[in-house]
Amino acid sequence: MRRHHLTWLLAAWLTFPATATENQKFPDRPIKLMVGFAAGGPSDLVARAFAEHAARAVQHPVIVENRAGANALLATEAVAASRPDGMTLLAAATNHTMLPALYGDRMKADAATSFKPVCTLASSATVLVVGPSMRVRTVAEFLERASSKGKELSFASPGQGSSPHLATEAFKKLTNTQMVHIPYRGAAPAVVDLISGQVDLSFATVGSVLPHIQSGKLTPIAVASKQRSPLLPQVPTFEESGVKGFVVDTWYGLLAPAGIHDAAYRVLEKEAKSFATRQDVRERLEAAGLEPHTICGDAFARQIASEITHNIQVAQRLNLKAE
Questions:
Q1: Domain at 125-223, CATH homologous superfamily
Q2: The domain 29-124+250-318: what is its CATH number?
Q3: Please, are residues 86 and 304 in contact by the beta-carbon 8 Å criterion?
Q4: What is the separation of C-alpha 67 from the centre of its chain, rounded to a whole number of angstroms?
Q5: pLDDT of 83-123, one tens digit each?
């Protein structure tokens, strides 16, 4: 009897911490939201907008930490290695699904199974913009310049394997043009060099360049959407301009470490859904060239898995690898 009693006490003691963690109020301290790119870009903007919204709702600070580098791999691995208590989260973007293709076995995390996708938060179309070094206004003029035998054009992207990088590679193949890739540590520094004339062009998310288009510092040529962007109604689509089938969209979303407790996940999902319904959030995102966008749970997980498979195939076809 005594041995049985001691065994029961030991089992109860071992299971108590997990039960307590599951049932305690979430959150019970500040949440860390990690961004894999430099401050100032669209990933950072979405993360900070969500952080402010969530902090008001859960009554605890949500602290945004920028850990730029390796196309967001550093932030991705840090969140995957964190405790699955929901206190450390990843503000991810479409480029997350390119990491397995670029890094393969070198990754210390799995882009799909190391995370529990919560919801997408926003989306953005892709727009071709040129800096002051290029005096073109239409897709036809751009293609003529890109195909000329003069200086090879350079294009900026937020990093090797990022969504804008892949968009440019797809465009190059579709139009049989050649351009030199100049990768940066995020959208913000890429735009700075584009405006200064250090690089010629970028297939950028609308969210990363809209203020500079509005100020006249960058010239939009065409958007890679099925319809014109309501944020750039005067800019034609590539389809209208004669480049058929060139459509590229970017999502921004919230990922938690795999194994997160259901109670914490439900709170995060609720706030992600609420985020997209607020009028002040919509106005803030649209002012930056973004739109609220919500796909949650299993549907979001399936989308990520599908994109990973597709991007591995694209990377193999283009022979893309991390530098």
A1: Periplasmic binding protein-like II (3.40.190.10)
A2: 3.40.190.150
A3: no
A4: 14
A5: 999 999 999 999 899 999 989 889 999 999 999 999 999 99
